[in-house]
What does this fold into?
Amino acid sequence: METEKGLRADARRNRDLIVAAAQKLFMEEGIDVPLEEVAREAGVGIGTLYRRFPDRDALLRAVGEEALQRLVDLVETVLREEPDAWHALCRFLRAAIELRMGVLPAKLEPRLHQRLRIGQDLHEMRQRVIAGVLRMTEEAQASGALRADIGPGDVAVLMTLHIYTPPSMPDEQAMARVVEIMLSGLRAGGGSPLPGTPYTEGDLRRYTAVEHPPA
It folds into this structure.
């Protein structure tokens, strides 16, 4: 059987088209959208889809892996390219919200969500994202740019923010305004005291931990 890395160029292209189409339709219509519709959106035959993904769970897992890989690439890019942790954090949150990272998990029922998260590769990717978020949070606070009552888990929650767009306002404008309001509230010295306690690194790691079912 061909491995993903060993796919021919045309097969890899078809796979990428299917995953992109599935991500779009799963977020717009829900995860029960007919796979025939996914194939049509991707411009491939249903047989091609099933050769790459034998069932819906396999396709959902691929969509989740792709989304997580985007986050890994994003966090590493902003840390490498931005002049400091605060600018890296702002760019990261803007991009994560624009990618609508919280939409697909919200459409999965809890047991399916847990099942699709199992896997060492996914665990390692999540840990790379957590490490990046932790670094940005700690360094931005150390520099005095980020308010002290924010934890890395709070940043992770903000990554999945859903923004409602009023019919009279363009999507990009509504999203940009809400994100900038949010970032303004994260700045040190601004905003009202926050209720409760920061969502810490430990809280975040407990949330992202995966319990494997008994053998």
In short: The mean pLDDT is 85.
